[in-house]
Amino acid sequence: MADESLKEQIVKTGSSADSVEEEAIFVTKEEDKGTKNLGYISATALIVNRIIGTGIFATPSTIVLLCNGSIGLSLILWVVGSLIALAGLYVYMEFGSAIPRNGGEKNYLEYVYKKPKFLITSMYASYIFFLGWASGNSIIFGQYILIAAGKEPTRWSERGIGIAAVSFAFLINGLHVKTGAYLQNTLGIFKIGVVLFIVVTGWVALGGWKKTDNFSHSFEGTSGATAYGVVNALYNIIWSFVGYSNANYALGEVKNPVKTLKYAAPAALVCLAIIYFFVNIAYFAIVPKEQLMHSSTILAADFFDIAFGNTAKKASSVFIALSALGNVLSVIFSQGRIIQALGREGVLPFSKFFASSRPFHTPFVGLLQHWVVCVITIIAPPPGDAYNFILNLISYPLNVVNLAVALGLLYLHIESYRGKVDWRAPIKAPLPVIIFFALATLYLIVAPYVPPNDDQKHMVYNDIPYWAHCVATWAIFGIGALWWLVKAVILPRIGGYSLESTEVVGEDGFWRKEIVKVYPGDSNP
Q: Membrane-spanning regions, if any (predicted)?
């Protein structure tokens, strides 16, 4: 767990009197001094673009189906999911305010779980290195661009356009950070405009224009909802809010990181939670329940078709495609920085290569690595269970990481109360909020093991066990543990040395850890 000699690492900032960062105590030796291109708007856009992917345009119909057609129960679960996301945000805000560096939860896990040395970093590195987070929305971009063009999507046409999308995101983020941030800001505003338009249309419908009777018996079907259905409905809702911690991955590049976190992150999430709730109201106001539950098209397309006709339905395909592209831009922006941070840690093979910001003063190599994984993920799997399995394998491990982060912060709070550690983050998450988030993430880890009934088995996989992605998650973490065993235990014993780490400032102004071999008689770095 965390090192008790924290006082050696505590520094005070010299902020102005009206700054949130005045007298802020950072547990890192010093903030990153690299180029800081990101302000309030860019940080907010990072969060908005990561959260608003394609989920809000499709997930509400799945939620209603899982809730046995109960509109009221589905709305309650959206509120619960919003509260869990908000609790998670405050956990990450506290860590981010105390450790304002690039890398996100990698830094927080390393800070808390120090023993066995390098184990947590190796397991986290395996999780990050092997998963193609941006691949799913890249394919969705290809699919809906083809629909908008009046073309029938095929396996290779949508994947080809998907590769073009992730390649575009890689190049624009790798060549020029400001241009990538500007495009993310623009798409973020566009996506907010689309969902607000849906909200306003729903309000008009509730006034009597094209209104359904979905709200006449809002809780009809609630008694027939199964434990499996409710569990997976909440799981899908919380996944729709993934991305609330996205700014944490680039805090080293954010101007006034503590102040930006304190205002930009909660504002983005709370506004989106309210908008999401009213988007659901709009869908329920216009799309009949039977169509909600059994339509073969994405819900937003049905919404625009009923409200404005077939032309608007085609336009909605463009909206969904651009929303997916914004998500791809935001995801690859963050993942590249995590790979770079892992390179700076020294845990990856060829660490100096991945740690570099050359040649464009961006994490180009980290972005390239994620691009390669995404392209493989897009091309390799056949349609059907294999593709759904990969998408689930991306979402499930995040809950494991979130639980480790929440338990780590809970530990720091308890030990700080006992006087064992000196933990004074500029932004504090209340203890009940941390406990609530920890229990919620534990629930999300255990819930997918709940077996579906015969009518719901097809909602997971057709031919492989419903728990397959859960087991594969532990295998991925196991690969990291195996790498740690070889790199940090077996080879040092054979070679007669130990591994130690020291922090240095790179040429780009960002801190990194260097792992070095220390032989008997050598002084520690």
A: 38-59, 71-92, 124-147, 159-177, 189-209, 229-251, 263-286, 318-339, 360-381, 393-414, 426-446, 466-486
Residue 514 near residue 504 (C-beta atoms within 8 A): yes
**Residue 26 φ then ψ, to 5°:** -100, 140
CB atoms near residue 519 (< 10 Å) = 10
Degrees, nearest 5: CA angle 279-280-285: 95
In DSSP terms, which residues pair with 518 in a beta bridge?
498
- β-strands 11-12, 25-26: how paired? antiparallel
Backbone angles phi, psi at 300, to 5 degrees: -60, -35
pLDDT digits (tens, 9 = 90+) for 449-472: 877 777 666 666 777 788 888 998
Q: DSSP strand E in 282-415: where?
A: none
DSSP state of 486: I
CA 224 from centre of chain: 33
3-state DSSP assignment of residue 515: strand
> CA-CA distances (angstroms) from residue 245 to 141, 183, 184, 269?
23, 20, 16, 10
Confirm if 215 and 284 have CB atoms less than 8 A apart.
yes
d(CA 118, CA 485): 10
Output the six-digit token pair for 299. Answer: 């819900």
If you average pLDDT over every residue of the chain, what do you get?
A: 82
- How far apart are the C-alpha atoms of 511 and 101, rounded to whole Å? 8
With residue 134 as reference, give the H or E element that holds it.
none
Please list the alpha-helical segments (H only) found in 245-286. Answer: 257-286
Q: Which domains does the chain have, with CATH numbers?
A: 6-481 (1.20.1740.10)
How far apart are the C-alpha atoms of 246 and 48, rounded to whole Å?
9
What is the model's pTM? 0.81
